[in-house]
């Protein structure tokens, strides 16, 4: 695993989590994932603000400031001698058995950094196949819009997608509207205009999603955050997924039917190039 940051200290040992840690027992905690390029963490401030928002939603007090977490993340990255890395911060509520949280504040904080996984090049050239899965996000649950440690709906969606020989699961909310993929936001392109599920559609307010919206507007395309029926995905000219780790990945089929021409579309490519230019500007920033 390399060197990790656990409760205020860097250690080469594996973290020892208590058998009564509430994150382990109940999924009682939150997490955030980030990516670094050339030693610089992309949109680190925004990711940490979202981490604290997730914690606030579940009434969890993180015993660190955003400033201290920035330092801790950078220390962990440097200790592992990684410049291009996957970074995950996990915060649990700490020890305690039973549904009533402990009265005294506490918790466990773990930062892990690893090399960015080598995703298949064909994902970015040929795109991913997707299926609309059976499991749905609860439109009325606040947990649908945060990164909590209870990630079972996403895991079950991925399991179903694999069982159906697809690379990605497309999740609807309980109102049968398009929500997201298993760990990505989703965009559609129709008639030169871009559409993405609104924040009311049980989605995570993705950092990369927001960045792509800004890029699209600068490129002169209109983008609409709205409610989207699943039938609109099959009728789209193009579709793509966004996440901090995988960046922008074309989605070229759904339920075994091609989306558009069944390959990465020209607008998707243009947005991908612009995103990579933004990343390069971060690396070269002094």
TrEMBL record:
A single GO molecular function term of this UniProt record: transaminase activity
Keyword Transferase: yes
InterPro entries: Aminotrans_IV (IPR001544), Aminotransferase-like (IPR036038), BCAT-like_C (IPR043132), BCAT-like_N (IPR043131), Class-IV_PLP-Dep_Aminotrnsfr (IPR050571)
Cofactor(s) it depends on: pyridoxal 5'-phosphate
One GO term (biological process): carboxylic acid biosynthetic process
Stretches that traverse the bilayer: none
GO cellular component terms attached to this protein's record: cytosol
Keyword list, A-Z: Aminotransferase, Pyridoxal phosphate, Transferase
Gene3D superfamilies, alphabetized: 3.30.470.10, D-amino Acid Aminotransferase, subunit A, domain 2 (3.20.10.10)
Alphabetized Pfam families for the sequence: Aminotran_4 (PF01063)
Similarity annotation: Belongs to the class-IV pyridoxal-phosphate-dependent aminotransferase family.
PANTHER family: AMINO-ACID AMINOTRANSFERASE (PTHR42743), AMINODEOXYCHORISMATE LYASE (PTHR42743:SF11)
Protein name (Swiss-Prot/TrEMBL): Branched-chain amino acid aminotransferase
């Amino acid at each position: 695993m390399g060197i990790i940051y656990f409760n205020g200290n860097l250690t080469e040992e594996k973290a020892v989590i208590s058998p009564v840690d509430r994150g382990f027992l109940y999924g009682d905690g939150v997490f955030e994932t980030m990516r670094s390029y050339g030693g610089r963490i992309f949109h680190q401030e925004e990711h940490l603000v979202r981490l604290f928002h997730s914690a606030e939603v579940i009434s969890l007090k993180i015993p660190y400031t955003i400033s201290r977490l920035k330092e801790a993340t950078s220390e962990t990255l440097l200790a592992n001698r990684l410049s291009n890395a996957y970074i995950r911060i996990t915060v649990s509520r700490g020890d305690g058995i039973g549904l009533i949280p402990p009265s005294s504040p506490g918790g466990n904080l773990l930062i892990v950094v690893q090399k960015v996984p080598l995703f298949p090049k064909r994902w970015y050239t040929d795109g991913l196949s997707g299926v609309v899965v059976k499991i749905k996000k609860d439109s009325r649950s606040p947990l649908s819009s945060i990164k909590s440690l209870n990630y079972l709906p996403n895991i079950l969606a991925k399991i179903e997608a694999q069982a159906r020989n697809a690379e990605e699961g497309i999740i609807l909310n309980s109102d049968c509207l398009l929500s997201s993929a298993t760990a990505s936001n989703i965009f559609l392109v129709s008639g030169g205009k871009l559409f993405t599920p609104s924040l009311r559609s049980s989605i995570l307010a993705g950092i990369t999603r927001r960045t792509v919206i800004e890029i699209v507007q600068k490129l002169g395309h209109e983008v609409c955050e709205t409610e989207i029926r699943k039938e609109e995905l099959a009728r789209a000219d193009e579709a793509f997924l966004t996440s901090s780790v995988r960046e922008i990945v074309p989605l070229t089929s759904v339920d075994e039917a091609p989306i558009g021409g069944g390959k990465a579309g020209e607008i998707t490519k243009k947005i991908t190039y612009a995103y990579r230019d933004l990343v390069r500007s971060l690396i070269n920033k002094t």
